[in-house]
Amino acid sequence: MRIEEVSKTKASLFVRLAYWFSQRRFGKVADPLKVMGHHSWVSFGSGVFELASERARLVESRLKDLAQIKAATLVGCPF
Predict the structure, then answer these.
(1) Beta-carbon neighbour count of residue 36 at 10 Å?
(2) Residues 22-50: pLDDT tens digits?
(3) What is the 3-state secondary structure (H, E, C) of 11-49?
(4) Phi and psi of 48, rounded to 5°?
(5) Are the CB atoms for 15 and 6 separated by under 8 Å?
(6) Fewer Cβ in 10 A, N or C end of the chain?
């Protein structure tokens, strides 16, 4: 059973802004964002975490990318 995605027409103003940013940055709206769109605060929290993780400079970016790939592989993430 999958959680239904939130369409742009039913999304809140904040979630539509997040959809726009995702579309602009990646060329499409990320699937996890469409699911998190059910709750604006969850979307906000996830976005803040992603931004902080991206801007962290204690570990070089290549190592962060490798860690993300390894974690995605371990949990069976398709993207």
Answers:
(1) 22
(2) 899 889 988 888 898 888 898 889 889 98
(3) CCHHHHHHHHHHHHHHCCCCHHHHHHCCCHHHHHHHHHH
(4) -65, -40
(5) yes
(6) N
